[in-house]
């Protein structure tokens, strides 16, 4: 595990006076190595009778296979001070577009108690417990959409709805069409979002010579949505998808910060494009050095958000994270040691690249054959 993650965990365990520090450290690190979206948070525990106690929590998404597709189920896990003698407390944390689907092992508040938790003993561990939770979620998905519409059915989480006979059904979804050049370019952040959110889409290559296929204003990237909307410009596409998929923060203040950060990211992208298409041979080194001022700023933002284990704004991923990830990753290809002095950014990049949807996308043939730019540089 990265050094910054170890420090967050170690500090939390000491501050909360956990009874078995070594076992807690080992089990938490092992679980985070398997479920890479989980991140540590030290704060008030509101789900148990220990209200008012500051405890170590793990928050993030568990990758779950459901009806042949992979989904990200948001959870929050609290490690009791008496662990491993006492079983961890686990809740499903539905987003604003979801509701809890009660089952034998998930109650109306989202509290999860699978058999391994009900039969807990000191020899059990977090990783095995979470594996049993993932298995149970794959058979009985714990969330469903509040409003069963085709657009919501395209969200990253399973979207079962109640049929007339009370049987869970899912809306069929026509995939979006994403029209762009066969390169990463200015279109990659949208691909990252679509892949991470498990939103079906098909890639349609674009030819500028004859504007084929036809797109509004002759501009790409262009998203033709399953709802019949045509959108051009990556910023407009990202914001539209963010509004549909709860990727715009949890408050109006978060949304403002996300917009601000995304503008800063795009300013860096424009400077990069000026260099890569204009004066790569003579300007590369000075350009790489100029990036440091932005890396410093982003490093400070990450440090201020849960010690570097949050996202760029708030406690959940936003569309700005995908744009920032793409820009950072492009610069790592340009200058592999550019994040050497910025450990939080380096960990942030690796953590986002390890998210199941993104990792699977980057293993695809489509990703691997696309150059970053259209001029042979990268």
Radius of gyration, Cα only, in angstroms?
A: 22 Å
Helix and strand content put the structural class at alpha+beta
* Shape, per Cα inertia axes: globular
Strand order of the largest sheet: 1-2-3-4-6
Terminal CA distance: 30 Å
- Sheet bearing the most strands, described? 5 strands, antiparallel
Count of separate DSSP helical elements: 14
Mean of the pLDDT scores? Answer: 85
| DSSP helix fraction | 40-55%
Detail the poorly predicted runs.
Answer: 146-173
Q: Report the order of strands and helices.
A: HHEEEEEEHHEHEEEHEEEHHHHHHHH
**DSSP strand tally:** 13
Strand percentage, roughly? 15-25%
What does this structure look like?
With 378 residues, the protein is of the alpha+beta class. Helix content is 42%, strand content 17%. The protein has 14 helices and 13 strands. The strands form four sheets. The protein has a five-stranded antiparallel β-sheet with strand order 1-2-3-4-6. It has a four-stranded mixed β-sheet with strand order 11-10-12-13, with helices on one face. Strands 5-7 form a two-stranded antiparallel ribbon. Strand 12 and strand 13 form a beta hairpin. Helix 6 runs parallel beside helix 7, helix 6 crosses helix 11 and helix 8 runs antiparallel to helix 9. The two termini are 30 Å apart. About 7% of the residues have low confidence.
């Amino acid at each position: 595990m990265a050094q910054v993650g170890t420090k967050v965990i170690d500090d939390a365990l000491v501050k909360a006076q956990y009874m078995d520090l070594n076992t807690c450290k080992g089990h938490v690190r092992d679980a985070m190595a398997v479920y890479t979206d989980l991140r540590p948070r030290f704060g008030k525990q509101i789900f148990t009778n220990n209200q008012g106690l500051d405890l170590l929590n793990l928050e993030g998404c568990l990758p779950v296979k459901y009806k042949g597709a992979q989904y990200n189920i948001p959870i929050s896990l609290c490690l009791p001070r008496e662990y491993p003698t006492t079983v961890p407390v686990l809740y499903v944390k539905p987003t604003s577009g979801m509701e809890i689907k009660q089952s034998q092992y998930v109650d109306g508040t989202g509290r999860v108690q699978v058999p391994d938790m009900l039969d807990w003993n000191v020899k059990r561990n977090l990783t095995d417990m979470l594996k049993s939770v993932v298995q149970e979620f794959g058979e009985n998905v714990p969330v469903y959409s509040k409003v069963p519409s085709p657009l919501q059915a395209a969200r990253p989480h399973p979207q079962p709805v109640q049929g007339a006979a009370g049987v869970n059904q899912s809306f069929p979804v026509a995939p979006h069409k994403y029209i762009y050049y066969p390169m990463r370019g200015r279109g990659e952040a949208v691909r990252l979002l679509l892949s991470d959110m498990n939103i079906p889409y098909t890639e349609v290559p674009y030819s500028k010579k004859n504007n084929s296929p036809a797109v509004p204003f002759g501009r790409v990237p262009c998203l033709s949505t399953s709802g019949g909307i045509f959108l051009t410009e990556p910023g407009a596409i990202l914001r539209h998808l963010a509004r549909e998929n709860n990727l715009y923060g949890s408050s109006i203040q978060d949304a403002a910060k996300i917009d601000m950060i995304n503008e800063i990211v795009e300013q860096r992208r424009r400077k990069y494009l000026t260099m890569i298409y204009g004066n790569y041979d003579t300007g590369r080194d000075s350009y790489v050095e100029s990036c440091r001022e932005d890396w410093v700023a982003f490093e400070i933002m990450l440090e201020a958000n849960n010690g570097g284990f949050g996202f760029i704004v708030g406690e959940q991923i936003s569309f700005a994270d995908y744009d920032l990830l793409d820009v950072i990753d492009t610069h790592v290809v340009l200058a592999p040691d550019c994040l050497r002095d910025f450990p939080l950014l380096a960990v942030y990049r690796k953590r986002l690249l390890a998210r199941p949807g993104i990792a699977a996308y980057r293993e695809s043939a489509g990703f691997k054959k696309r150059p970053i730019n259209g001029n042979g540089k990268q």
